[in-house]
Amino acid sequence: MLVNVSTTTTSPLADAEITDTSLRAFLHGLPGVDQVGAEQRAATLASRSIKTSAKAQAIDLAISMVDLTTLEGADTPGKVRAMCAKAVRPDPADPSVPKVAAVCVYPDLVAQAVRALKGTGVRVASVATAFPSGRSSLDVKVQDTKLAVEAGADEIDMVIDRGAFLSGRYMRVFEEIARIKAACGDAHLKVILETGELVTYDNVRRASWLAMMAGADFIKTSTGKISPAATLPVTMIMLEAVRDFRAATGEMVGVKPAGGIRTTKDAIKHLVLVNEVAGDDWLTPEWYRLGASSLLNDLLMQRQKMTTGRYAGPDHFTLD
Amino acid sequence: MFEYAPAPESRDIVDIQPSYGLFINGEFVEAQGEERAKTVNPATEEVLAEISYAGQADVDRAVRAAQDAYDGVWGRMPGRERAKYLFRIARIIQERAREFAVLESLDNGKPIRESRDVDVPLVAAHFFYYAGWADKLEHAGFGANPRPLGVAGQVIPWNFPLLMLAWKIAPALACGNTVVLKPAETTPLTALLFADVCRQAELPPGVVNIITGAGETGRMLVGREGVDKVAFTGSTEVGKQIARTLAGTGKKLTLELGGKAANIVFEDAPLDQAVEGIVNGIFFNQGHVCCAGSRLLVQESIQDELLDALKRRLATLRLGDPLDKNTDIGAINSAAQLDKIRELSRAGEEEGAERWSPPCELPDRGYWFPPTLFTGVAQSHRIAREEIFGPVLSVLTFRTPAEAIEKANNTPFGLSAGVWTEKGSRILWMAQRLRAGVVWANTFNRFDPASPFGGYKESGFGREGGRHGLEAYLDV
User: Fold this and answer.
1) S-S: B325 plus which of A49, A271, B293, B313, CB 3.0-4.6 Å?
2) Does residue A97 sit within a domain?
3) Which domains does chain B have, with CATH numbers?
4) A256 touches chain B (CB under 8 A)
5) Contact (CB, 8 A) for B241 and B251
6) B256, B387, B458, B471: which is the annotated catalytic residue?
7) Nearest-CA residue of chain B relative to A50?
């Protein structure tokens, strides 16, 4: 179906030809998702047993994929600086621990993060577009994005207009993403679908394709402000979407589950999903991220347990 | 690359004896027949134990024990009392679930993930389910006071050794019958462990008797006078022999035989789930499933796309040590079965179908066959007509719903079928026309004790499971 579409004359995959009608027809023409079957498949993959050397490898990979996040009204420059220090050197006692992929903050704190991370290789991501609800005008959203980009953000995490999506105004969502993408310049664009508000897997699949066609570099599950967030079946549907998108267009899009991933076990289940659904091309921080905050300390704790054979108490891991 | 390290389930939990006798009248006894055989781990060819082959004298003894238990205790025990024993057995199976799962995987070759997550939980569920019926039989729709039949002689196959035991024993006992059960000669160990569960549950002696042996023992059991009901699951060929033997004897008979199920995928199917359903349909339990979806009927308009997705998926299947928790495909149960699968696969190639398997390294020892699919299969090919009973899928195409029905029903079998479409009305339209005992919609190989299971045509007769499953064990 996908390959066929890209070769027809009214291809919705070629920007110039996308119209409201063709976009709707394309999205509604995607194969459906059977909820029972999808959840069963995700549950089966979650039962994989990752032990010993595979676990050690998975933990380091997961650490290197973390987007260490603080998105609170109470965030301050001090809080952000502390988090950046942790991002570069997650375990002060063990320099062999890899650094995380990025920190994720609100636009007004991007400058702080950029200063703190200069030269470290840890990227700075910023949420934008009236995060988390996305309820503002397009102009405000574009300004919000520019604010973050001009402050030096490497990556922008935008939210889609869920109201527009749920009322079937796909073109509006599409154009908004395209406008934000243009405002990003060189910065990578992650598009947050907020799957907890889209609810059905059919919607998740459609929103994934919509975002990818509109220019997303990454598709991301959630803001972290809505529950449920990054469930395994939702992430699996998005991984299927990026896999099929590459098969149809040759372009790779990353995936970022965010929210609700708190333990090493959770993180490993995600890596198994990536490995068996999209394939190991996605098993790098360049193409897969874990949006999380408390997860990092659990990864560190399990990592130390693997090397020493003992669990250290929570006070042996820094709170930042 | 993300390589999963070996994650083997420990086999320390099982205690396999070097040799086993027969379980008759509540105790293990030496067989009077001389013949012995070895049961092996099909993944390694390692000998697990030596078992006895019951001879005529042993069969006589077992049937007499069952008759005595029926006349003396079980046949007259109130249903609510029988239920207590069945509930107890169900709970003990749950408590010893890991032991049963490991032993099943060792003796059968199936992946521990399946024995742990499918077989053993279903076994416990089946006993729980029929325990609930034991004191409610007068409400089952078979009259005010339905009576049991007496002694049930039951012969079960090697593909789901413990689960088939549960399907046979649970309804028989719930209805007030006593049983003599013969497990398959290549997979007797979990049945023998079940004998221990019967003792642990303090089931009255003789209510359950387990005699091991091969086809000859089975023949003696089903033909023995005093056996009032015969239940057989296995090949159509043996089923026909049994039917001939029993004709005119007045013994009640149910048969659950072979299958060549069509798994029908329409162009509007949920594709990713359909791929999972195809995999689950034919590669679950190495395809050793009588209701396996061994014929894929795919609508021609999505053939290429579906096959690409299916091949990509097959490349991720993990074949190997059945006790490894990450194994998807285990070992073929016996050398004889492996030969049969190879022979039919060769026939498929010779008849012009195109054979494909993912890159897949097979272990040096043991009985193994890679997941295989044949494309370009025609209805006239042997691989489209004969039951292969292995991880081999035959792919055929259709153009219209009517053609799908025609091809799906064009088989001597009729055990199961699958329909994949997002259109609810089409599911109902198809289900009414498919001549198969079970029709799955947007899923495959799902079992529930409350749901009856059984065949049309040469797939047998009688139903197991659900309220319908009671009928086979009641004098109605």
Assistant:
1) A49
2) yes
3) 22-257+456-471 (3.40.605.10), 262-441 (3.40.309.10)
4) no
5) no
6) B256
7) B4
What's B209's DSSP letter? E
Residues 6 or more apart whose CB falls under 8 angstroms from that of B248 comprise: none
CB contacts under 8 A, A 40-79 vs B, are 40-41, 47-55, 57-58, 61
Residue A73: inside a domain: yes
DSSP one-letter code for A312: P
A280 touches chain B (CB under 8 A): yes
- Note down pLDDT in tens along chain B; length 476 residues: 799 999 999 999 999 999 999 999 999 999 998 899 999 999 999 999 999 999 999 999 999 999 999 999 999 999 999 999 999 999 999 999 999 999 999 999 999 999 999 999 999 999 999 999 999 999 999 999 999 999 999 999 999 999 999 999 999 999 999 999 999 999 999 999 999 999 999 999 999 999 999 999 999 999 999 999 999 999 999 999 999 999 999 999 999 999 999 999 999 999 999 999 999 999 999 999 999 999 999 999 999 999 999 999 999 999 999 999 999 999 999 999 999 999 999 999 999 999 999 999 999 999 999 999 999 999 999 999 999 999 999 999 999 999 999 999 999 999 999 999 999 999 999 999 999 999 999 999 999 999 999 999 999 999 999 999 999 999 99
In angstroms, the separation between the Cα of residue B421 and the nearest Cα of chain A is 9
Query: What SS3 state is found at B374?
Result: strand
CB–CB of B7 and A31 under 8 A? Answer: no
Residue A48: list chain B partners with CB under 8 A.
4, 325-326
Inter-chain contact B5–A276, Cβ cutoff 8 Å? Answer: no
**In this structure, is residue A11 part of a structural domain?**
no
**Length of chain B as a residue count:** 476
Q: Map residue A6 onto helix, strand or coil.
A: helix
Q: Which residue range(s) make up the domain with A226? A: 2-6+22-308
ipTM: 0.95
Number of domains comprising chain A: 1
Which residues of chain A neighbour B325 with C-beta distances below 8 Å? 47-49
B interface with A, Cβ–Cβ < 8 A, is 1-7, 113, 117, 268-273, 276-277, 302, 305, 316, 325-326, 422, 442-443
Q: Which CATH number characterizes residue A69's domain?
A: 3.20.20.70
* Residues B372/B392, Cβ–Cβ less than 8 Å: yes
Task: Answer whether residue A87 is part of any domain.
Answer: yes
Edge-to-edge strands of the sheet including B438-441? B354-356, B372-375, B392-398, B295-299, B262-265, B416-420, B438-441
Question: Are A280 and B113 inside 8 Å of each other by CB?
Answer: no
Residue in B with minimal Cα distance to A4: B305
